[in-house]
UniProtKB/TrEMBL annotation:
The lineage of its organism: Bacteria, Bacillati, Bacillota, Bacilli, Bacillales. CDD domains: AAA, HLD_clamp_RarA. It comes from the Bacteria. The keyword Transferase does not apply. One of its GO terms (biological process) is DNA-templated DNA replication. One of its GO terms (molecular function) is enzyme activator activity. Gene3D superfamilies: 1.10.8.60, 1.20.272.10, DNA polymerase III clamp loader subunits, C-terminal domain (1.10.3710.10), P-loop containing nucleotide triphosphate hydrolases (3.40.50.300). This is Putative ATPase. Residues 39-150 form the AAA+ ATPase domain. It comes from Psychrobacillus insolitus. Keywords: ATP-binding, Nucleotide-binding. Belongs to the AAA ATPase family. RarA/MGS1/WRNIP1 subfamily. SUPFAM superfamilies: P-loop containing nucleoside triphosphate hydrolases (SSF52540), post-AAA+ oligomerization domain-like (SSF48019).
């Protein structure tokens, strides 16, 4: 048997062997039909680790029988690209698979671009990062297809595991292996959408199992032990990590406690307590806001407790904070109002500060006309405190409204005060 890892050996040879990704390479897609007809457009493949970007590139090459060169942008240099270009002049079109394409610098890209443009090189770039954020626009513009690959389902991965167990040439088919459907499906679930992890887990399990009478017997205890060691899906600071942060916030905003806790669990397993804490604090003001002003200080207290405790105990106060925010009344009115004011400024909607609001803490202020300010604290209005009807906005912006109160939670009371004060302004 080859010394190459099982995940490498089981890489599909043609596009018909691709598991999942029906939206990209299913038999009804334009991509499938183009490749079957021998036409391969330059493309970018975007997706999380282990979803099959490299496998798809190899399968495309295997289907079309075109010359194929694989490079990794973290290691390849300008000379490597020039060598591929030189080969293309001799052999004709070459498929260049460039993994982690977002790592290519401008000089390397400039070397590559004209040859992609004239068609001598067919570029298949793969990236775990959002190509619209991390891939040079010049590369994107020359790729006719940008395809996002999705994480494989447990069913897709189970198909791959069964294929590996049965294949006598590339897989483990020459071995007699006693493994149950339940054990295999547990591995498929544990891989969390990552085919490479699943096949590596299967290979580790088989070779860690004991043999009796020529039969490798897989034990439940071994499977459970190895499954527990499978790493959490997603890399710190990668696109998937930021997608987790986004999903956490959107789940809290949507008041889905279970989903929010699920994403929090993923993030904490990645171990970056600082980024998670920062996002939770932002959420307490962005999404809960004036509807429940006490939540911000409570979340801050939870974050400070988590930082003092460290992981794994930090998960306890953070879980409290997430559940509290999920079930709290919500309002984004304050920061939405500020954003509206900032947008107005950028649009040039500004004016002169009224003279009575300008600084008067210096001799000569009156000579400049900086007078007329009425001190609100000297004019009591019931239990509200002090208020006086005077102009605060620039003259050309009088009547402009940025703040739109939301009648939720504590903000309902604040909204009533706001509306009452607005009414006072119209009274003579």
């Amino acid at each position: 048997m080859s010394n190459e890892p099982l995940a490498y050996r089981m890489r599909p040879q043609t596009i018909d062997e691709i598991a999942g990704q029906k939206h990209v390479i299913g038999k009804d897609t334009a991509m499938y039909k183009m490749i079957q007809n021998g036409h391969v457009p330059s493309m970018l493949l975007y997706g999380d680790p282990g979803v099959g970007k490299t496998s798809l590139a190899f399968a495309i090459a295997g289907t079309t029988k075109l010359p194929f060169v694989a490079l990794n942008a973290t290691k390849a240099g300008k000379k490597d690209v020039e060598d591929v270009v030189a080969d293309a002049r001799i052999t004709g079109k070459v498929i260049l698979f460039l993994d982690e394409i977002h790592r290519f610098n401008k000089l390397q890209q400039d070397t590559l671009l004209p040859h992609v443009e004239n068609g001598s090189i067919i570029l298949i770039g793969a990236t775990t990062e959002n190509p619209f954020h991390d891939v040079n626009p010049a590369i994107r513009s020359r790729c006719g297809e940008i395809k996002q690959l999705t994480r494989l389902t447990s069913e897709d991965i189970d198909v791959l595991l069964q294929r590996a167990l049965l294949d006598p040439v590339k897989g483990l088919g020459k071995m007699k292996i006693a493994i149950t459907d339940e054990q295999r499906k547990k591995m498929a679930d544990a891989a969390n959408g990552d085919a490479r992890k699943a096949l590596t887990l299967l290979e580790s399990t088989v070779f860690a199992s004991s043999e009796e009478d020529g039969i490798t017997i897989v034990e439940d205890a071994l499977v459970n032990s190895l499954v527990d060691r499978v790493g959490v899906f997603g890399d710190k600071k990668g696109s998937h990590y930021y997608n987790l942060l986004s999903a956490l916030q959107k789940s809290v905003r949507g008041s889905d406690t279970d989903a929010a806790l699920y994403y929090l669990a993923h993030l904490l397993e990645n171990g970056d307590l600082v980024a998670v804490s920062r996002r939770l604090l932002v959420m307490s003001y962005e999404d809960i806001g004036l509807a429940n002003p006490s939540v911000g200080p409570q979340v801050l207290a939870a974050i400070q407790s988590a930082e003092r405790l460290g992981l794994p105990e930090a998960r306890i106060p953070l879980a409290n904070a997430v559940v509290l925010m999920c079930l709290s009344e919500k309002s984004n009115s304050a920061y939405a109002a500020l954003d509206a004011a900032m947008a107005s400024i950028h649009q040039g909607k500004t004016g002169a500060i009224p003279s009575h609001l300008k600084d008067t803490h210096y001799a000569g202020a009156k000579d400049l006309g900086h007078e007329g300010y009425i001190y609100p604290h000297n004019h009591k209005v019931g239990t509200f405190g002090g208020w006086v009807n005077q102009t605060y906005l620039p003259d050309n912006l009088i009547g402009t409204k940025y703040y739109e109160p939301i009648e939720a939670g504590e903000e309902k009371r604040l909204a009533a005060i706001y509306k009452r004060l607005e009414k006072f302004k119209t009274e003579k």
